[in-house]
């Protein structure tokens, strides 16, 4: 049952296709819960995406529907990716977009990991 207000999961979305190996990606890390790969259009010196292996549209969908093992496994994978990339000392930013106002482009839950440089303010000032 999808979370209210969200579209159902689309098996044809680009990250589902990456998970199935139909589209190549520059993999950084993989375990039973998550896959991490470089963003195709990086917005920082390091810009990696981490996605759960299950079919979740967004953070709300994932948080509501995934089992406790999958949720814990995913977030441990996020930390493992940052560790593997050597970002813990310098710091990094984790971001997820959900729905219209965020501009979420790909309807498979993912977090962005940004790092490798000072990242500046979290958001552009409101106009
Ligand atoms: P969103 O706006 O949904 O939070 O972010 C989607 C991200 O996926 C964007 O940063 C975009 O550059 C990235 N992206 C879109 N298509 C592909 C692709 O085919 N391969 C990879 N590696 N990244 C992609």
Chart the SSEs and their pairings:
Blueprint: H1 14-19, E1 27-30, E2 34-38, E3 46-52, H2 59-65, H3 68-84, E4 92-95, E5 111-115
Antiparallel strand pairs: 1-2, 2-3, 3-5, 4-5
User: How would a textbook summarize the main sheet?
Assistant: 5 strands, antiparallel
Strand content: 15-25%
Each distinct ligand: guanosine-5'-monophosphate
Tell me the number of structural domains: 1
Could you tell me the mean pLDDT?
95
Shape: globular
Number of strands: 5
Oligomer: single chain
Helix-strand sequence: HEEEHHEE
* Helix content, binned percent: 10-25%
CATH fold call: HIT family, subunit A
CATH architecture tag: 2-Layer Sandwich
What strand line-up does the widest sheet have? 1-2-3-5-4
Count up the helices.
3
Within CATH, the superfamily carries the name HIT-like
Task: Characterise this structure.
- The protein has 3 helices and 5 strands, in the order αβββααββ.
- The longest helix is centred in the middle third of the chain and has 17 residues, at 68-84.
- It has a single domain, classed as HIT-like (HIT family, subunit A), CATH 3.30.428.10.
- The radius of gyration is 15 Å and the shape is globular.
- The protein has 127 residues and is of the alpha+beta class.
- The chain has a 5-stranded antiparallel sheet with strand order 1-2-3-5-4, with helices on one face.
- The structure holds guanosine-5'-monophosphate.
- Residues 14, 23, 25, 37-41, 49, 97, 103-106 line the site of guanosine-5'-monophosphate.
């Amino acid at each position: 049952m999808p979370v209210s207000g969200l579209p159902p999961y689309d098996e044809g979305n680009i990250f589902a296709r990456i998970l199935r190996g139909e589209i190549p990606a520059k993999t950084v890390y993989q375990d039973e819960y998550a896959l991490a790969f470089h963003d195709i259009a990086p917005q920082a010196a390091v810009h990696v995406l981490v996605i759960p292996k299950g079919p979740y549209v967004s953070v709300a969908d994932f948080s509501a529907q995934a089992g406790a093992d999958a949720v814990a496994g995913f977030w441990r994978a996020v930390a493992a990716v940052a560790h593997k990339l050597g970002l813990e000392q310098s710091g990094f930013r984790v971001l997820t977009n959900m729905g219209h106002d965020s501009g979420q482009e790909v309807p498979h839950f993912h977090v962005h990991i940004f790092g490798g440089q000072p990242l500046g303010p979290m958001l552009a000032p409101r106009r």
